[in-house]
Amino acid sequence: MHRWRGGRQRRGRSLGGQSKGGFSTRIHAITDALGNPLEFVLTGGQAETLPALTPAGVRAFVGDKGHDSDALDQAIVARDMKAVIPPRCNRNKVRECDWLIYKERHLIECFFNKIKHYRRIFSRFEKTARNYMAFLHFVSALIWLR
């Protein structure tokens, strides 16, 4: 019988949450008006959508139809932000969506496409949140220097 049956002990917070399909992690990002990264928060795949990431000056939460829920709307309004989320087709109470702000969402999507060019980001070789976040910051610096 081995002293460490499961292999070596890892230090630090593990990366992501456990789900039926395996481990999953969400990267929440704040970008400026040009799509350059400003701040990140990592959460497990099953965690709440709106993390404690509200720096000064944020006026809107821009999300896709998957973020359309009344609980999230209440949390966004409680933080004095505007919810820019298109309503789902099966929503009972249809709400307005500012489509001009929503069109700027493609900058965030383009940012996520840029970081997926780096193998260590998309394949998640890093097993701890600290190491993964460090590589996210490194990739962000490379994007800023382009």
UniProtKB/TrEMBL annotation:
Ranges of Basic residues composition bias in the record: 1-13
Domain Transposase DDE: 64-146
Tree of life domain: Bacteria
UniProt KW keywords: Membrane, Transmembrane, Transmembrane helix
InterPro entries per UniProt: Tnp_DDE_dom
Transmembrane segments: 129-145
Protein name: IS5 family transposase
Organism: Candidatus Methylospira mobilis
